[in-house]
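Suppose you are handed only these lines of text.
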Amino acid sequence: MKTKHVLGLTAALMLGGTSLAYAEAIKINGGTAADMVLLPKFLGILVFDQANEGAQEAHAELANGGTLTFQGPTPENSVAGQIEMVTTAATQKLAALMLSNNAGDQISPSAQAAQAAGTKVVTWDSPIPSGAGEDLFISQVDFGSIGVVMADMALSMVGADGGEMAVLSATPDAANQNAWIDAMKKVLAEDAKYAGVKLVDVVYGDDQAEVSYNRALALVDKYPNLEVIMAPTTVGIQAAAKAMQDENLCGKVGVSGLGLPSEMVSYTLNGCAPQFALWDFRDLGYLTYYAAYGLATGQLTGEIGETFTAGRMGDYTIEADPGRANAKRVLMGPFTVYTKDNVEAASK
Ligand code: RAM
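From them, the structure of the protein bound to alpha-L-rhamnopyranose can be written out as follows.
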């Protein structure tokens, strides 16, 4: 919270004469009807259901007389399905489309068509890499910080003598995972303290449990000295932990990455996945809704420096996205690192 206020103030100072307008957080008023769609990568992932709960909470709070629809493709048809749904949004003249992008830059033409038809396109969880077709990205946490936390978790698992790590990611076009993996690679390469962490491979489990499970098994077959499977996906980390547990490999290969406490608690307590990180997906859905509703109803312009109040979550400021040229973000944060000491309480 503190950082956000400081950023808001800095922006206000830079804007000189208009500072008062920006220093004061814009209150988002409800009551205007706006049809909105929340589009996850695909249906069937628990954290996306949680994001929907948060969005529904905001929808009710703002008494939006329009509709909030939670819709997504099947896991097998994620890329084509998302593009098709974004294309439909343009023809339906939706007020706002809230997208967790699983199609990389391939989504841009349809997202730009939606914008041209008057739809505000707000990404959350996973942005459009080029920013083309996106009004704003609601960034769960700073993407660079995910690189650091994954490098730190890996380091603590391989220990002082070093060891091999493989990444088990989601889908190859997932902009969020790709950015986090790049951020981790950068941290590993730039700071000598991580010299012992040897990244041997990056594989994709497509955010599907069975595929991820099999990829995890294939990794331990291929790399007999593997010490860490780093899975920056709630689906992948759970599947990898189960695979290591089923093969009695938990003392040898540690699983880490980004996971949901309720899905990971048993693996953290039994040592298969000693530590992992995540943020709150309900809050992410709630904040995304507030920003998208503000844009769709003309209460926010989406300019850098604009500060708004997102209900119970407080004030947020639109800023340049440090990871993507010409793109804008709202930074939520923070993430929590879970271990055997706090995972049980968080899983309830
Ligand atoms: C999976 C999805 C999602 C990501 C989390 C960490 O649920 O890939 O996009 O944010 O993992």
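What can we learn from it? The domain at 143-277 is CATH 3.40.50.2300 (Rossmann fold). Residues 1-22 have pLDDT under 50 and may be disordered.
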